[in-house]
């Protein structure tokens, strides 16, 4: 096996980007990944499953969350592989650290089998990532909120913020405000500010859409007298919640 890493097309026709791993990690990932050539053909090509240990997976996610391709031995030379779409982890996956995917949930579209097995194991990160994908990418509000709620209840910081902010945005104002207040009380304003920044990053490669309800919520939450405009550093609770709603609204219309 050469030093793998070609540009290839996945079975869905998406380009798998060129990647380079440093020698050590390439070696480690390559050392023992088990390749299974599945019998079924997908169009003109077969798909290959890679079974990784927990450590190999974490390394893969850290080094190249956007995807990786493996060059197969000569006998399989005609196969084109998008390996990461078929990643399966040997070890238990309830507490697998999926932070690169939490940061940019859109990347998790490539890791479907991994997401499924982590969800089955009730992995908190996987619930967050799936919630984000369902809500924003697949536009399934119900399923999205379901998974975000699970992540939030389990104490996922980013999950708590986004779940609260979306509740406000979809008109569940009181519930959203309660969730945000609890988060702010427990973790502090700074933590919420970090969540806002991370929210922006997590929308990477995700197209947002503006729902009518966002506009309604935005108008509903606007304080009669905006006594604390965003440029000043203190706010009453009404102005604070309106500020958070404004941030979400601006992200959805693509202003940020
Ligand atoms: Zn105010």
UniProtKB/TrEMBL annotation:
Residues 112-198 form the At2g35280-like TPR domain. Transmembrane segments: none annotated. It holds the Pfam family TPR_27. InterPro entries: At1g67623-like, At2g35280_TPR_dom. PANTHER family: F-BOX DOMAIN-CONTAINING PROTEIN (PTHR33784:SF13), OS05G0482100 PROTEIN (PTHR33784). This is At2g35280-like TPR domain-containing protein. It comes from Brassica campestris.
């Amino acid at each position: 096996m050469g030093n793998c890493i070609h540009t290839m097309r996945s079975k869905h026709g998406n380009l798998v980007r060129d990647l380079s791993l440093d020698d050590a990690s390439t070696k480690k990932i390559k050392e023992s990944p088990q390749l299974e050539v599945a019998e079924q053909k997908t169009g003109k090509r077969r798909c290959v499953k890679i079974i990784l240990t927990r450590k190999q997976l974490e390394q893969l996610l850290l080094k190249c969350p956007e995807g990786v391709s493996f060059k197969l031995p000569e006998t399989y030379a005609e196969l084109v592989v998008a390996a990461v779409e078929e990643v399966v982890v040997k070890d238990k996956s309830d507490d697998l650290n999926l932070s690169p995917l939490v940061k940019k949930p859109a990347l998790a579209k490539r890791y479907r089998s991994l997401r499924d097995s982590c969800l089955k194991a009730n992995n908190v990160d996987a619930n967050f990532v799936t919630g984000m994908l369902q809500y924003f990418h697949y536009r399934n509000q119900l399923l999205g909120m379901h998974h975000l709620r699970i992540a939030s209840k389990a104490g996922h910081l980013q999950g708590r913020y986004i779940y609260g902010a979306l509740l406000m945005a979809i008109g569940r104002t009181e519930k959203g405000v309660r969730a945000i207040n609890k988060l702010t009380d427990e973790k502090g304003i700074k933590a919420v500010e970090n969540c806002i920044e991370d929210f922006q990053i997590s929308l990477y490669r995700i197209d947002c859409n503006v729902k009518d309800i966002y506009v309604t919520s935005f108008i509903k939450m606007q304080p009669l007298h905006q006594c604390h405009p965003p440029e000043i550093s203190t706010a009453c609770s009404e102005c604070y919640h309106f500020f958070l709603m404004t941030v979400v609204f601006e992200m959805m219309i693509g202003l940020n």
